[in-house]
Automatic annotation (TrEMBL):
Domain of life of the source: Eukaryota
Domain spans labelled Metalloenzyme: 10-304, 347-424
Transmembrane regions listed in the UniProt entry: none
PANTHER family, sorted: COFACTOR-INDEPENDENT PHOSPHOGLYCERATE MUTASE, METALLOENZYME DOMAIN-CONTAINING PROTEIN
Protein name: Metalloenzyme domain-containing protein
One family name in Pfam for this protein: Metalloenzyme
One MF term in the entry's GO annotations: phosphoglycerate mutase activity
Organism in which the protein naturally occurs: Populus tomentosa
InterPro entries in alphabetical order: Metalloenzyme, Pglycerate_mutase_ApgM
């Protein structure tokens, strides 16, 4: 007798950056997630198990990099070495052991009495530096630098330092205002301070050693000369002359922060026994995945901001999880122009990162966050349809998991310590909770943009949001008693409240229970 082959169990993991929030009076004291009409997210919660997750630990407002490390099973207290390496690798710069890298913000300065602006990495903003005083006077203006950024980065790439000719400098544009800088050479330390003052109306900083080693003191000297030489090159760049002639802001200095080295860790496959891939146009997340030997897949039109094509992301993840039925997507390799083929047999764990929700939180745009969540929900419906088509062959059994890496409340405009909801279910239970196979198969796979919000629309739309969802008769379909995805409902889930370091264990246990 021939034993029938068991279907391959595979996980579609959707990470909604900045998912969590707080209750807002303008939304009827609901969070944006509670106010949004998200039937597919609700179906995941209704069809599976739920809980509240503290990405690292209770009460800690964390960055996306440390949160992602924690969620993927790597204790950031042990493995974290600065975010510069993640940003630079994600931007396409190959890193070896001993190299150091930075997250970089491009800055502009004040010449005479004219105010100029610069890019800042934390809040995705331009900022202003007074050249005479050396004070960063403003860190907020515009997040877009997509045309000029690559030009200026190309001018800096390969530069040499007069006092330290033995070091190679690589610069690569990342996304929005971001770029990565890698310093390659001997006797470097990641244990130095940043040049970014982090607050308005503070002096541009000098890098300093954070320990007493010769390597740290030497590296600080290298970085301070790097900062000066970058400014010298940018001041004389024709693009800045053109922008000045047009009355536009000029970019003539960079802020170096997040100095880090490439971390040495067990691969994701060795640690968890799962072949993983990731779609993450946000370079810091892609670089983190590369550090864990996770294959980074490219999705056409995926930008990591409000302009992103979510349908493209969903399609690429679905193809990766259904290979060899579908062709496995190509894989990005830092430092190489060519892409390598993906795993012919596909992947066990497909990580889909969505950044726009976090951007809306940082921009304090409550209605935009609601609408962006509804766009994510629509994308999950498309992903579910593609996975259902593959599962119907009998070759695969799929699971859907959704959570966030931290809360980014629109009231604060920054990351906070509130926990985030976590939900996971079998695809077939999701299908049952959402209305059946026929309902799913009617889902359009046409790409669509994230909706925009016009000036003044917030107050008008605030009265409308949430009504459609609240009128539904929600009920649990399978698993625990939770029937909707929200920060409040998740607290009633069977998983309780748990730290992010336990998340991968929960996912693997759920797979085993449903073998």
């Amino acid at each position: 007798m021939v034993t029938p082959q068991q279907p391959k169990r595979r996980v579609a993991f959707i990470l909604i950056d900045g998912l969590g929030d707080v209750s807002l009076p303008r939304l009827g004291y609901k969070t944006p997630l509670q106010a949004a009409n998200v039937p597919n997210l609700d179906a995941i919660a209704s069809g599976g198990v739920n809980g509240l997750m503290d990405p690292v630990e209770v009460g800690l407002g964390c960055g996306s990099d440390t949160a992602h490390l924690s969620l993927l099973g790597y204790d950031p207290r042990v493995y974290y070495r600065g975010r510069g390496a993640f940003e630079s690798m994600g931007a396409g710069l190959a890193m070896s052991s001993g190299d150091i890298a930075f997250k970089v913000s491009v800055c502009v300065c004040v010449c005479t009495l004219t105010t100029f602006e610069r890019f800042n990495l934390i809040l995705s903003n331009f900022a202003t530096l007074d050249e005479k005083t050396g004070i960063v006077t403003s860190r907020r203006a515009d997040r877009h630098f997509e045309e000029e950024g690559p030009i200026l980065c190309a001018a800096l790439d390969g530069m040499r330092l007069p006092s330290f000719p033995e070091y190679e400098i690589r610069v690569r544009y990342a996304t929005e205002h971001r770029c990565g800088v890698v310093v390659k050479g001997p006797k470097l330390s990641g244990n130095i301070s940043a040049t970014d003052p982090l607050k308005d109306n503070r002096l541009l900083l000098q890098a300093e050693a954070l320990d007493s080693t010769d390597e740290a003191r030497h590296t600080a000297a290298v970085v301070n000369e790097l900062s000066r030489e970058i400014s010298r090159i940018l001041v004389s760049h024709p693009l800045n002359a053109k922008r000045a002639a047009e009355g536009k802001n000029i970019a003539n200095v960079v802020l170096l922060r997040g100095c880090g080295i490439r971390i040495e860790v067990p691969s994701f496959q060795d640690k968890h026994g799962l072949w993983a891939c990731m779609v993450a146009p946000t370079k810091i997340i892609a670089g983190l995945g590369l550090s864990l030997d996770i294959d980074i897949l490219e999705a056409p039109g995926a930008t990591g901001d409000y302009r992103t094509l979510l349908t493209s992301k969903a399609t690429v993840i679905a193809n990766a999880l259904s290979a060899p039925l579908a062709p496995s997507p190509s894989v990005f390799v830092p430092g190489e122009d060519e892409r390598k083929p993906g795993r012919p047999d596909g992947y066990d764990f497909g990580f889909l990162h969505i950044k726009a929700i976090d951007d809306a939180g940082h921009d304090k745009a409550s209605i935009l966050k609601v609408k962006a969540l509804e766009a994510v929900d629509r994308t999950i419906g498309q992903l579910a349809k593609l996975l259902l088509q593959a599962e119907s062959t009998g070759k695969f059994q799929y699971f859907i998991c959704v959570t966030g890496d931290h809360s980014t409340p629109v009231e604060y405009g920054d990351h906070s310590f509130e926990p985030v909801p976590f939900s996971m279910c079998r695809l077939r239970d999701f299908v049952g909770a959402v209305g059946g196979e026929s309902f799913i198969m009617e889902t359009s796979l046409d790409p669509f943009p994230i909706p925009t919000v016009e000036a003044g629309e917030d107050l008008v739309e605030a009265e409308k949001v949430g009504k459609e969802r609240s009128s539904k008769q929600l009920k649990a379909f399978s698993g625990d008693s939770v029937c909707e995805l929200s920060e409040i409902a998740a607290a009633r889930g069977c998983l309780g409240r748990f730290p992010g370091g336990q998340m991968m264990g929960i996912i693997k246990a759920f797979l085993e229970l449903n073998a």
